Amino acid sequence: MAITAQRFTALDVFRGMTVCFMIIVNTPGNGATTFSPLLHAKWHGFTPTDLVFPSFLFAVGNALSFVMNRYRTMPTSQVWTKILKRVIIIFMLGFLMYWFPFVHWEEGRLVGNELGSTRIFGVLQRIALCFGIAALLVYYLDGRRALMVSIVGLLVYWALLLLFGEPGAQLTLHGNAVLKLDNWLVGAKHLYMGEGVPFDPEGLLSTLPAVANVTAGFAAGHFLQKQGKNYEALAKLLLTGCTLLLAAYLWNLTFPINKKLWTSSFVVLTVAIDCIILALLVYVIDLRGKTTWTYFFEVFGRNPLFIYLLSEVLSILLYFFRTGDESYYAAIFKSVFLPLGGYVGSFLFAIIFMLICWIVGYLLDKRKIYIRV
Fold first, then answer.
1. Could you report the per-residue pLDDT of 126-171, keeping only the tens digit for each?
2. Domain ranges in the chain?
3. One MF term from GO for this chain (predicted)?
4. Are the C-beta atoms of residues 240 and 21 closer than 8 Å to each other?
C-alpha cells in the first residue's frame, strides 16, 4: 500500500504535549517544593516526568517519517549534507546553551564561564545525535530493519554496562560504564553536576539505546501513514504498546528501568507508553474528530525546538539577573507564588512560565513563522 500524504493532527498534538510538559517539569518555581510526579526518579524507577524526554525523541522519529520520502528522491550527498547540517546545528545550540550567558557572578563581579568546564553532552546534543543516527539507519535500511538494528543496540548496551562497569556496581551512579566512558572521553569538568558528582544522564554511551526511541517513533509514524485513520490501525498500535509494556516490566526484573542510565528496559517502557498515548490521540482526534482542544498543543508542536530553547534561555536569564542577593527567578517565586503555598506556588510558576512560552509560539504561528534547523 502506498503511504498517504495526509498529515495526522494526532502526531502534531503528541509533539506539542511533549514540549509543553517538558517546559513545566524543567521550570518549577522551587525544586524543593515540587509535586513528586514532576520530579525524575532518583535512580532506578519511573515517574511521569521520566517520560518527557524519550517522548520528544519518539516525536522526532514521527517527524522523520514524513520527510524520509523526500530524502529518498535526493542525491545521497545532499541527504548527508541535510542530516549532518541539522545534527551540527542542534548539537552546537545545546553546547552554547550550557555555556550561555558566557559569564557568571562571583563575589559581586562578573567572571567569564570557562570553555574548559562547559558541559558537552545534554538534551539538545542527544536529540542531534539520535536524529542523525536514526535518519541514516532509516535512509540506508527500511524502517523495519532500522528498528531491528536499534533492538540489537538495546541488547548490546545491556552487555556493555555489565562488561565494562565496576564489578558488582555496574548499575550504580559511581560504577557505571556510561560515566567511565565520559570521564575518559571528555573529563569530569565537562559533565553534568546535578547528581552532586560528575555524571551525565545524556552521556555518549547511553545515546546508543536512545536511538531506539527515534526509530520506534519513525516506525509508528510510518505505520499510521501507511494504514490510515482506522480502527484496525488503532488496535494494532494499542496491542503493540501493551505488549511492550509487559516486556519492559519483565526486563526490569534483571535490567532495572532507569532514566539516568537510559537502560534498555526504560526504552521499551517509554516506547510502550508513547504508542498507547498516540493511539488514544488518534482515536480522539482523528477518528472521533474531537479537535476543539488541540490548537493549544499544536502551537508547541509547530516550533518545538525553538520553543524549548526559548524556555531554557529565558530560565537561564532569570537566574542570571539579580535583585539584591537573589536571582529574579527566586525573587519572583518568593514574592508572587510562594504566598499561594510552596507546592501549589511552585506548580503555578511552572504553568505561567509555560504559558509565556506558548504566547511566543502563538504569535509565531499567527505570522506563519516556523523556525526549522
1. 999 999 999 999 999 988 899 999 999 999 999 999 999 999 899 9
2. 9-366
3. alpha-N-acetylglucosaminidase activity
4. no
